[in-house]
Write a structure and sequence with these properties.
Elements lengths: L4 H15 L8 H25 L5 E3 L4 E3 L7 H13 L2 H10 L10 E3 H18 L16 H13 L30 E3 L11 E3 H4 L3 H11 L3 H15 L10 E3 L5 E3 L1 E2 L6 H14 L2 H17 L9 E3 L5 E3 L1 E3 L5 H7 L3 H18 L5 E3 L4 E2 L11 H13 L2 H17 L1 E2 L2 E2 L2 E3 L4 E2 L6 H14 L13 E5 L2 E5 L3 E3 L5 E3 L23 H14 L3 H13 L11 H23 L1 H70 L2 H7 L6 H53 L5 E2 L3 E2 L5 H27 L2 H19 L7 E2 L1 H16 L13 H4 L22 H8 L13 H16 L2 H33 L8 H7 L2 E2 H16 L2 H12 L2 H15 L19 H16 L3
Antiparallel strand pairs: 1-2, 3-4, 5-6, 6-7, 8-9, 9-10, 11-12, 12-13, 14-15, 16-17, 18-19, 20-21, 22-23, 24-25
Helix pairs in contact: 1-20, 2-3, 2-15, 2-16, 3-4, 3-5, 3-16, 5-6, 5-8, 8-9, 10-11, 12-13, 12-14, 13-14, 14-15, 14-16, 18-19, 20-22, 20-23, 20-32, 22-23, 22-24, 22-29, 22-31, 22-33, 23-27, 24-25, 27-34, 29-30, 29-31, 29-32
Length: 1028
């Protein structure tokens, strides 16, 4: 036996690996266990379908019977046949293969074009291509012919008339069967198996319904030689590409005749998902890189407009890119798998982990989930055993082999097994919150959900082939290679990529060749080394030299015989050691490697553990810091709402909309009525503009000040925790006897409650009464200037309103002092030039406060007495904080953030105008015009005289209730620029814990008694609400 380089590396790897704990690893035995359990799950569901539901489409597991859903194809049987092949059940595969050849496709029924394609045609093609592997007898011309292929072609011919629409190119396409003379564009959603497209079929279809045919139809064309199927699928797919917006997004539903989008919301999930999926998989299957280029453009647009930056994707307007609904749909879960296919592994992992938190929360995944409200969408709480999340886990695990993904898959299996299993199969959940059962087991549970779960735990399955090995198949025209790799359609039916070359002119001519032994040279080198080390001539030379050295040639050396004997003994000892080393050199070599490896492993583990502990402390600190920030950000929203509720009172006192509206019906004089109308249009619109601007000011200032204040308080809490303290807390309990976590939590919460209330005062001081009056004045002038030119009878649509509003905004926001550097026109409304000083004594004293300031101060008074260092001057610290905040408010970044929030505020107002304007049009439209609702929204026109009261209604809706104000501020706070800027402020002020204690004060605000603080705050609110 001898040691080569690979053996040494393996030994060292084994030693280091054995030093680690197996905790956190998904063992091979565990994989085999779950593989067996998934197989049991399939046969429980499959046998229940055969026993209780066949030949119906699907099983109802609670009532133990069956019913038809998508066309009475025995759909679950067709969907499950390739899962039988995945599990290796040759006998049952052969039986079902024969059984489904008798499907009746000549009945007078309407069927879904989309579902028929992905489930039935896809299932038939997959079973046809797997027949040879499953030992089903095939003819010599297979895979170019076969009974299931003929059935798939016949069914595809039944749905081809659906493609005869006006959204494609207008050239003629003639197949070899000459059954289609002009197939043009995006298909209808429904077709009759006998008569074609129904007369009353709608022209509206979803994006996925028009772009999910390329895999099945491309396979048909490559196997049969008829190009018509692939061409119509490509034309429909590229027609959707041609209808994309200028920012490379598509809508959710489209008119297949006009090409106009009827649902403007873009998403990665429901209604669009498989369109994106087929761009990537179609590029792989048919080797068309232009499809991958299309998807690359879509991915860039999705990242820019739909991503929230933390792994989630929401709804956005396909033209403007503006986020419209903060919703997650369960069909979104396919997207990490698609990102894996295009090589974006880090982003795929980030999104997959985010989605799995949803699964962990409910034990399943609801159809729709509101990310802002953190709750399921009402009426969409169901979980129909969908496979998309499992599919993404399979793709990412196949690419990374990360054991964490195996734990996720096991988690999903255990949840389905415990929540959805019945005596007659597995059922959907009607509500993921209480796990109420539904009475349906969709066919994709057998086709996709179980198949992907099984493939995750079965790493040796033939479907995981990556092209390293293949089977050469001979046909009359040449040869091709099978099982090189597989592409799954959106129903998880695998298509053999290599089989598509068996029936086309472009055969693969390469033959397999014997592999050259890559280790030949290495073995020869090691053999030479062994012969050299075992050479016996070296041993003889040593013996000869030993005899010469021990011989006494001179007489006088007798006197030094003792030294000669010692020298001889030493030399003899070294020769014996050398002989021992030479005899046992292989063992000693291994021992030395193990010893060195052990030492290196110990040093590595020591450094690794130290690094892990340091990282853990750092992560814990960052987590506490982030948690503190999130808590304060939520508080700032509530604070903004409370402050603005008082500001609304000032706005209402400044405008007379309601009184003028009430007075108009009582006036008969036409001149006086015209004057009132002129005043009304200015008052109503100006008040709405004031709401938009002032709410933006209050939100931006509150978020900034509270974030900076929170960072300052967090920094101070860290300093105080690091200082030794032996004081006694109220109640006689030693401060050192409390746990650090409980003490820090109590300190932070109580400090936050007190200081946030005081921060409200500063926000009110920033937005001064003078600035508000100046804003109202400028808005009145600009509104009067623009709207006075519009006759009351002039018809306006939503685009006209947006244009006139933008003109008013332009007059307000234009730079009047272009010669003055760093001047921003909105700054004079945000705060006065002279920063007001806080009065030392309150003007009035109130015995009660809505915020219970005395109670808050009493719980935190002890914290002000436990400081061991002397605080600096309160005035200096307050002044320093004010200077820093003013610098941030006057910065260009803050002005840019403020403009973004104002844009969002006006966008909300435009949406409200659009909804208000469409109401009259909707009442006048008939039931037959419901499909054109989106067109009505765009084209609705009303005279200005009717739009003016609408502005009053919109103002009342946005400002009349505290809940409406909170929703308004939540919408504005979604601005990513605001979040980044407030996070920057928080980080800036929280880093003061790295500075000396004398630099950072305990509080930047004065610390008078509880009663004076309470009176100070109350007096501010009273002055704000008092009439001018």
């Amino acid at each position: 036996m001898f040691c080569d380089t690979k053996t040494i590396v393996l030994l060292i790897s084994f030693f280091i690996t054995s030093a680690y704990s197996n905790e956190g690893q998904f063992s091979k035995q565990k994989q085999l266990y779950y593989k067996s359990r998934v197989k049991q799950m399939f046969y429980h569901a499959y046998d229940s379908y055969l026993k209780f539901a066949y030949p119906y489409d699907e099983l109802r597991p609670l009532t133990c019977d069956g019913y038809d859903t998508w066309g009475s194809y025995s759909l679950s049987l067709v969907d499950a046949i390739d899962t039988l092949a995945t599990l290796g059940n040759n006998t049952e595969f052969a039986r079902v293969y024969t059984l489904i050849q008798n499907l009746d496709i000549e009945r007078d029924i309407n069927v879904s074009v989309f579902e028929t394609n992905i489930r039935v045609i896809g299932g038939l093609l997959s079973a046809h291509l797997l027949a040879k592997r499953m030992n089903v007898p095939v003819n010599a011309t297979w895979p170019c012919t076969g009974p299931l292929l003929d059935l798939a072609v016949a069914l595809a011919n039944k749905v081809l008339p659906a493609f005869d629409t006006a959204t494609g190119n207008y050239d003629s396409v003639v197949g070899c069967n000459e059954i289609v003379s002009s197939v043009k564009g995006i298909p209808y959603g429904t077709v009759n198996l006998v008569w074609g497209v129904p007369v009353d079929e709608t022209n509206i279809t979803c994006t996925a319904g028009g772009g999910t045919f390329l895999i099945e139809f491309g396979t048909l064309s490559r196997l049969t030689g008829d190009p018509v199927y692939e061409r119509v699928a490509l034309r429909a797919l590229k027609s959707l590409w041609s209808k994309r917006s200028a920012i490379n997004l598509v809508g959710n539903h489209i008119n297949i005749q006009t090409g106009a989008w009827t649902a403007n919301d873009c998403t990665i999930g429901s209604g669009v998902d498989s369109y994106f999926e087929y761009l990537v998989k179609g590029a792989i299957l048919l080797r068309q890189p232009d499809l991958m280029d299309m998807m690359s453009e879509y991915i860039k647009a999705i990242d820019k407009h739909l991503s929230d930056g933390s792994g989630w994707f929401v709804f956005a307007n396909y033209e403007q890119g503006r986020k419209t609904m903060p919703l997650f749909a369960s069909l979104d879960a396919f997207y990490p798998g698609l990102l894996t296919l295009v090589g974006e592994l880090d982003r795929a992992r980030e999104t997959l982990y985010a989605y799995h938190t949803m699964w962990r929360k409910f034990g399943s995944m609801p159809e729709f989930y509101n990310l802002v409200q953190q709750d399921c969408m009402q009426g969409r709480e169901a979980y129909p055993l969908r496979p998309e999340h499992i599919e993404s886990i399979m793709y990412l695990y196949k690419a990374t082999k990360d054991d964490t993904l195996l734990f996720m898959a096991a988690d999903i299996f255990d949840a389905i097994e415990s929540c959805c299993k019945t005596s007659c199969g597995y059922t959907s959940l009607k509500n993921v919150k209480d796990h109420q059962l539904d009475n349906r087991m969709e066919s994709f549970f057998l086709a996709e959900t179980i198949k992907y779960l099984y493939l995750i735990f079965d790493e040796e399955n033939f479907l995981h082939s990556n092209g390293e090995y293949a089977t050469e198949h001979y046909t009359s025209s040449g040869s091709c290679f099978l099982e090189t790799s597989f592409v799954y359609n959106t129903e998880a039916h695998p298509i053999d990529i290599g089989a598509l070359d068996c029936c086309t002119p472009s055969f693969i001519k390469e033959k397999t060749s014997a592999k050259v032994d890559e280790n030949t040279l290495t073995k020869e080198q090691m053999r030479w080394l062994r012969d050299s080390l075992l050479n016996e001539e070296l041993n003889g030379a040593i013996k000869k030299n030993f005899s010469t050295l021990t011989c006494s040639a001179l007489a006088y050396e007798q006197r030094f015989s003792i030294y000669g004997e010692i020298l001889t003994f030493i030399r003899l000892f070294f020769i014996m050691v050398w002989e021992f080393i030479k005899r046992h050199r292989r063992k000693l070599y291994i021992i030395s490697l193990l010893a060195g490896g052990g030492y290196a492993a110990a040093r590595f583990l020591n450094r690794k553990l130290s690094t892990m502990l340091n990282e853990q402390d750092k992560m814990l600190s960052e987590w506490k810091k982030q948690l503190y920030y999130e808590h304060n950000r939520d508080t700032s929203l509530r604070t903004s709402t409370d402050i603005f509720a008082q500001v609304v009172l000032n706005i209402n006192r400044s405008f007379q909309c309601e009184s003028i509206l009430a007075k108009l019906p009582t006036i008969t004089d036409s001149t006086q009525k015209r004057e009132l109308w002129e005043q009304l249009r200015t008052e109503c619109f100006a008040r709405l503009f004031t709401l938009a601007y002032s709410s933006s000011f209050v939100l931006a200032l509150t978020e900034l000040v509270v974030s900076a204040l929170s960072g300052r308080l967090y920094s101070q809490s860290q300093i105080q925790q690091s200082l030794p303290s032996s004081t006694t807390a109220p109640g006689g309990v030693s401060a050192t006897s409390k746990s650090t976590h409980a003490e820090s939590t109590q300190s932070q919460n109580s400090l936050l409650s007190r200081e946030i209330q005081l921060a409200c005062l500063d926000v009110i001081r920033y937005t001064t009464e003078a600035g508000m009056n100046c804003l109202i004045d400028d808005i009145r002038k600009a509104t009067q200037s623009i709207l006075s030119r519009i006759p009351l009878s002039q018809m306006l649509d939503i685009n006209d309103i947006m244009w006139y509003c933008s003109e008013v905004r332009h007059q307000i926001e234009k730079k009047r002092y272009q010669t003055t550097p760093n001047h921003y026109p909105l700054l004079k409304y945000v705060r006065s030039n002279a920063f007001p000083a806080r009065p030392n004594q309150p003007a009035t004293t109130t015995s009660s406060s809505a915020y219970s300031m005395s109670n808050i101060l009493s719980t935190t008074s002890s914290l002000f007495t436990t400081r061991t260092h002397s605080p600096p001057s309160v005035f200096n610290v307050q002044q320093q904080f004010e200077i820093e905040c003013i610098e941030m408010i006057e910065s260009e970044t803050f002005q840019r953030v403020l403009i973004q929030i104002i844009d969002q505020s006006f966008s909300n107002i435009y949406d409200e105008f659009a909804r208000e304007m469409v109401k009259p049009s909707m009442t006048n439209s008939s039931a037959d015009d419901k499909s054109a609702n989106s067109t009505i929204i765009v084209d609705s026109q009303l005279p200005l005289a009717k739009i003016v009261p609408m502005s009053n209604n919109i103002y009342s809706k946005l400002s009349s209730q505290h809940e409406q104000l909170m929703l308004h501020f939540q919408n504005l706070a979604c601005c990513p620029e605001l979040h980044e800027y407030t996070k920057y402020a928080y980080d800036l002020f929280s880093n003061e814990s790295l500075q000396s204690a004398s630099r950072t004060a305990f509080s930047f605000l004065p610390s008078p008694s509880a009663s004076s603080l309470q009176a100070n705050f109350s007096s501010f609110l009273q002055s704000l609400m008092s009439p001018q």
